[in-house]
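Interim report, section 4.2 (structural modelling).
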Amino acid sequence: MGHHRAELIQRLDHVLGQLDRGSEYLKQQNPDLGRYDLWKAKRRYRKLKDILLEVERRMSSSITTPFHVLTLHTTRSFSYRTIGLSLSPFPSSVWALCLPRVPPHPSLTGFATFVGCVISPPLRQVTVKVNFWGL
Amino acid sequence: MAEAEDFRSLQSKHKAITSLLPYGVLQERDGRPEILDTLLRAARASGKRRFVWYRVGTLFLLARASPRAIVLTSPHARWCDLTGRGDLVRRWATAASAVQYTEDVCQSVVDTLLQIASEDELVPSIPAGVWTWLTKGPSLPRICMGRHIGARPRVVKTVRALKDVEVLKSYLLVVWSEWSDLRDGPGFNKMCASIRWDLSGI
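Predicted structure of the assembly:
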């Protein structure tokens, strides 16, 4: 996902660079364009870039920050559909998965990024570590 | 005929240019694309986003146009009030899948796609495969109705609903431009939300 963000940031840099050329250049297309319109356009594109940079920072630090821990109890198998994972019963008790995104749990209002889980096969219990955003 | 400086005189000849469209389409079908190509250049040089050809829909329905003509003229159709729009979208999508790729064709497909996607009623008629045209990275012309309409909240919502990150990224690359008039409001807010939630994976 990081390369998608990088590409979008690059695009925004290009757009902001073009907007910095001033209204005279852009008036070729839109003669009614004023300084205030240009200022507003720059502000919007800067905001988009800021959000992308914020997400980028958040993602790069998510591995080292403390996680909220969610314990999910499975019923008959290790397949837990609500988080979009298919947990086949591997012998290993510890998983270290990094998936780009899983759909949010129905009981959550935010967005969850799955970063790892611990499976206890005898109890058929899966402890999933996720980062929650927007809770 | 189609120089950008002449757009005012071209606008005054809008009706004349428009009336030539059926002839240009028929000529194009018979292997003589010059007239249609000239009309398209004139429409582009007019300096107007909305250089509308009301007859485009009729030409599609009567199956008089070749796939290339359908694709190239469709950005100039008034998709919000065409008769039999669902059928027209299917014909357009069929044409888009049959036509040979060129930069002009790609621009036209994406331009039209974004216009169609702003109409809730038409979205179900858009085949999933058509969205991949966005990933070909077209650079839309400065004057482009699709880019203008494509920033509307309905379109952002439709693209997000595809749950295809590649298409979403390509869509944003297309609509983010110094030539677009991205405005504050629901469309912009949905874009911000989309970055936060759809593009926030590791």
